[in-house]
Amino acid sequence: MLPVALGERYRVEDLPSITKTEKACEIFIEVEGQQEKIPLETYVTGVVAAEMPVSFKKEALKAQAIAARTYALKSTNYGKIAIAPTVARQVFYNKEQRKANWTSNFPGNEKKIVEAINETKGQVLLYNNELITAMFHSTSNGKTESAHGYSGNDLPYLQSVASISDQSSPKFSAIKEWTLKEWNALWPVKWHASDFNRVQLFINDSGRVERMQLGKNVWAGREVRTLLQIPSTDFKISYNAATGNVQVSTEGYGHGVGMSQYGAEAMASNGKTAAEILHYYYQDIEIKSIDACLK
């Protein structure tokens, strides 16, 4: 999940038509590709079902619901702007997709997700009474990324925190391989075998690649991740002269900012509540209902 505009502000009091009238009970989200607008809580159900494994503990699912609701309201300006159902925003599965994915397990899985949504109904994350940019990701590299490390834009509630338990995630580490010919087809410059000994990786405080330099050519870590389609910006590059293959190893899955989903699951397994999970990954925030009638 990626932010629409990291740090963009919406204040609760700036939206009186939403927070101070009966219409606050009828927030609808327009999802690209869906024929009709979707009630907020129905939308959040579809996001949690798509974004987090249903096998996770309920407290982790509840934390995901609150983060997803916050992200949706902020990025759509309380339903005024459409949102894409993709990893560039938030993945969303409608009821038909959930039935197809879960088949015979649909009734039990749906019940579990809906309970998590209902138990957090209307709850959002605020910092100084403003909706936060509630970024989340699958698996950190053992430490989450700060907003500044990701975008250069510092946000006090998106700081780097330890998430060591992520190392047990099945998505923690990965290796991807190319022939030198395949590798060169991806880049705007031609690599030679000797270049792999002189390429420089500049690592930031969270252990991720801030930038990569080869001679006069410089790429941001995020550019490299996109170009190579690798899981994270915590990567290492090596070249095997015997096989002629390039290998990139990574740790973590996703941009690393905000709540780690596998970290949330580990915390829930250790008895932490959704509120404790959210206060850990988002610093100095408050969890509040956007309106009493949504409780």
Q: What are the low-pLDDT stretches, counting only 5+ consecutive residues below 50? A: 9-22
Give the count of structural domains: 2
Structural class: alpha+beta
Number of strands: 13
Shape: globular
Helix-strand string: HEEHHHHEEEHEHEEEHEEEHHE
What does the largest sheet look like? Answer: 3 strands, antiparallel
User: How big a fraction of the residues is strand?
Assistant: 15-25%
Tally the helices. Answer: 10
User: What is the terminal-to-terminal distance?
Assistant: 26 Å
The residue fraction in helices comes out at 25-40%
Radius of gyration: 21 Å
**Quaternary organisation of the protein chains:** single chain
**Taking all residues together, what is the mean pLDDT?**
92
- State the strand order across the main sheet: 4-3-13
Protein name: Stage II sporulation protein D
Pfam family, one: SpoIID
Domain Sporulation stage II protein D amidase enhancer LytB N-terminal: 36-127
